[in-house]
């Protein structure tokens, strides 16, 4: 495990108190509310949560692709110690692709259907690296081989529609890795794929990160994918981080009642239960986020304080949890240490 | 009248001799995707046939859940549509309680049978008419199948159905867009139950939902099955969901059932190399660090499936016989596998056993 519980001396990416908001006629909606985390070089941070939890928005904010009217309301994003959230568009364009690669969910929409795969790869390579046409092409073929596309020197001249879904996602990964970025934001990279293809893509992402020391922010709703791939995991709920910690800790000893419910609601082979754990209700809409802890109306363990005061992340065991249940433990740890 | 419409809450009628509700034998469905005749002549190409379902046989016992699992393009959804009659089969027979319903004509002649089966679709956004109120959506099967029921009785029944799926009767006044994905799927279930069916065909009913909502829907479906004595044909690509809901599981690959058996046996000791590959491909939530067979290759096109066993290009056990001869399912009606390697005893033991 490359993960460290306390991020190494200088994290590759640091997000501090990030807030993403959408101004509307009826007031400002806060989609991501005061979240902070860091990713170390070579580390895979899984970000998991249900639809609308704000996980994809966080990814989009990091690569500077928030769709207006969405905007960063507060907080900062630092890449290798340098602030990138306030950069002008052109500056950010140079970072995107060169220092941060992206992999999106649907490989068909992230490739241009009118250009061959090779043209797209070569264009990206030449935008970011000082290479000539032939050298760029050689690199593109290498990349395609690296991501496991057979007969790469022939396939490079094919159009995206001539590839199957799994192969297309490999091409997208090759595109993301063109300029040897230090960091990759992967937003649901395996969601559109069949399980057998998904397994191949997961092991590919893992291998590439290990070999190149690339840090990955892996956004997904699939806890299984996180358990296989990530070193650390952040669980998001209603735009906030409910729990963040080493993946074994979060998966096996979930602390936050939401994480606990989430893990119990996943059916598992060999695990015989008559009924799955059920979290009643659904995630609140952005204009109806309750005061206090956002999870309190659905929480089986909620008490008075949860309804009034919002908990911030506090240490609990090897993870950090935003839940008042762990306040005593956190205080003790603070005094003890 | 209200009594009669509420009578849906009854256990499965036992003891009518035949406890097989649905029997499917040699079901085949081909789709012709050829270019037009003139193009075929000019371009000198032949017909192109998608062999979506290529001889599938199974039977479903009353009160049980039979699941079909497989990757995209394996034909599982086509089987679901054939069973409810959305497509006529190209060959093969379908029997419901021993009555033949293979052809559209046979279905027209047995309208009561058609009203006893309903379908739940994958996408709760596409399967509800956005311009209808929920009460009208849920009432439609009652109006179609139970003509002559008064308006107040229909409304009472709709309210009861909505409560049964965990919504409130007043939700009937709303439009589908006012509900979340999980609530919409509840509406779909209420609509399916409105005609008082005994048999529900569920085509990936939870694939579009978040896990916590999926748990709610799966729990609801299990509860309803127990209370109303329903029989399910459950289609899914998610092996864990299938493990959770099914009595019998059938694994499909390129239009054929390659292995089927009682859930625990199939998952505990899978025999077909494809079943094993699927099970190995599931991300491991337990993080036991178990050794896994690396997954290779992709599902070939059903337009031009490989000869012999369709799985042979990806199979670690493929022999010359596998490349030429289509394996037949060997076993009983409850558990069988179609694989030459199993038949010849070349199968290595399963690591999970």
Question: What does this 3D model show about the protein?
Answer:
The complex is a heterodimer of chains A (337) and B (353). By secondary structure, chain A is an alpha/beta fold. Chain A has a domain at 13-99 and 179-268 and 275-281: P-loop containing nucleotide triphosphate hydrolases (Rossmann fold, 3-Layer(aba) Sandwich). Helices cover 35% and strands 22% of the residues of chain A. Chain A contains 13 helices and twelve strands. Chain A has helices at residues 55-62, 89-98, 107-110, 117-128, 133-146, 152-155, 165-177, 195-212, 223-229, 247-252, 257-264, 304-308, 327-336; strands spanning 13-24, 27-39, 44-48, 71-79, 82-83, 100-103, 183-187, 215-220, 232-237, 240-246, 314-316, 319-321. Mean pLDDT of chain A is 89; it is low at 1-8. With 353 residues, chain B is α/β, with parallel strands linked by helices. Chain B has 14 helices and twelve strands. Chain B has helices at 2-6, 37-43, 76-84, 104-109, 111-115, 134-145, 151-164, 181-194, 211-228, 239-245, 263-268, 273-281, 320-324, 340-343, and strands at residues 20-32, 49-61, 65-69, 91-96, 99-100, 117-120, 199-203, 231-236, 248-253, 256-262, 330-331, 336-337. Chain B has an eight-stranded mixed β-sheet, sandwiched between helices. Chain B has a four-stranded antiparallel β-sheet with strand order 2-1-4-5, covered by helices on one side. In chain B, helix 6 (134-145) packs across helix 7. The radius of gyration of chain B is 22 Å and the shape is globular. Chain B starts with a helix and ends in a 10-residue tail after the last helix. In chain B, 43% of the residues are buried. Chains A and B meet through helix 8, helix 9, helix 10 and helix 11 of A and helix 8, helix 9, helix 10 and helix 12 of B.
